[in-house]
Amino acid sequence: MTKLYLRPVGIAVARDAATKNANKLGLPLCGTALAFTGAEIFERSGNTIQRHGLFSIEELQRRELTQVHGREQVAAWLTVLTRPRKSICGLPAERPQIMGIVNVTPDSFSDGGQLANSEAAIAHALRLEDAGASILDIGGESTRPGSDPVALDDELARVLPVIEGLAGRCQAKTSVDTRKAEVMRRAIEAGADMLNDVSALTYDPSSLEVVAQSGKPVILMHALGDPKTMQQDPKYDDVLLDIYDYLEARIAACRAAGVQPDRLIADLGIGFGKTLQHNLVLLAGLSMFHGLGVQLMLGASRKRFIGALTGEQIANRRVAGSVAAALAGVAQGVQLIRVHDVTETHHALTVWQSIVEASR
After folding, report:
1. Mean pLDDT, range 333-350, rounded to an integer
2. If one looks up domain 97-359 in CATH, what number appears?
């Protein structure tokens, strides 16, 4: 079977005229302040992948083009790409949201051991909210490259007091970053608003059932293999299409279990089983993943690829590169940015959003 993929290109600030004359000027991108003026078409048939080049919106809608490249598939892609995304946890999808990272771990790659107890973690989370985070992501297990799994009781002891301690003390939503179904279940009981699983609900056979029964939103992230070995010579046939297909399959599994798309967020998994070039290709092609029909999250904060590009080997000094990656994602319509450095990211997004609003 031949499968088509469309990567929106020519993304710019949407103007009223663009929506009134979409055939010539562009189509709105997922209900954001952006519009796209064309798309690159990819075609996959078995192991054969072809790139058919760039096409304007007008060309994409022409009868002769869609007859060649699959009229129904092109039309379906355009429908999904232009459909506004629903809010999650009451947070508007048309404006980028910031998720602040709260690692209650001794060995996370960037800030492990800095939050030695639950009170320190709670205080840090409240500072992140004051700095502009609308979601606080609490994690008790490091999944950095080369890391080992954490025992269930240890992970629970790290995250539950923080989630419980934040309940009633902040307006931000709380998320638990875990691969374990029991941690998910207990975190929800403690007050967590959403779930974040770096294994896309594949690590624990019971996790999908917990998510389906909870009614909570969940972030599905791509990772190639286990954290212990994922950076040992990762390979793909086509990193962009392979990861798209993986996330599409995980979304389908969630839907089959009763989890609707408006509760799902997809994350490409920057740095999780990817080389420097893989990460750059994914960031450049990020707009394609809007074809999944769900909100997108980008988590590139302080990661190793930034150090490889800039020469900065100390993770917490990669702030400027992290903000640049965040803005690159927002410029392609990403709805959620997961970061360590909330103040700097919030300032950058405030300036970016102000410029966008002034140009509409």
Report:
1. 98
2. 3.20.20.20
Confidence of residue 329 (pLDDT cuts 50, 70, 90): very high
| Measured distance between the N- and C-terminal CA atoms of the chain, rounded to whole angstroms | 42
Highest-confidence range of 3-17, 44-58, 244-258, by mean pLDDT?
244-258
Arithmetic mean of pLDDT, 171-197: 98
Catalytic residue list: 303, 338
Residue of 137, 170, 141 whose CA lies nearest to 157: 141
| Contact call for residues 312 and 304 (beta carbons, < 8 A) | no
320 contact partners, CB below 8 Å, separation of at least 6: 310
Burial 36-45 (b: 16+ CB within 10 A, else e): bbbbbbbbbe
**For 69, what's the count of Cα atoms within 13 Å in the CB-facing half-sphere?**
27
pLDDT value at residue 304: 95
Decide: 142 and 112 in contact? Cβ < 8 Å. yes
- Note whether 224 and 234 are within 8 A (CB): yes
Angstrom CA distances, 203 to 12, 162, 226, stand at: 38, 24, 9
Q: And the tokens for 192?
A: 């967590």
From CA 266, how far away is CA 248, in angstroms rounded? 9
Distance between CA atoms of 301 and 321, rounded to whole angstroms?
A: 8
By C-alpha distance, which of 84, 38, 82 is closest to 61?
38
**d(Cα 169, Cα 147) in Å, to the nearest integer?**
32
Residue pLDDT, tens place only, 2-46: 899 999 999 999 875 444 444 456 899 999 999 999 999 999 998
Tell me the domain boundaries of the chain. Answer: 2-82, 97-359
Q: How many residues does the chain have?
A: 360
Averaged confidence pLDDT in the chain: 91
C-alpha of 135 from chain center? 13
CA atoms within 13 A on the CB side of 302: 19
Q: Which two tokens stand for residue 35?
A: 């519009």
Q: Can you give the pLDDT at residue 81?
A: 97
Radius of gyration of the chain (CA): 20
Closest CA to 265 of 200, 215, 353, 327: 200
Give the bridge partners for 28, in sequence order. Answer: 35
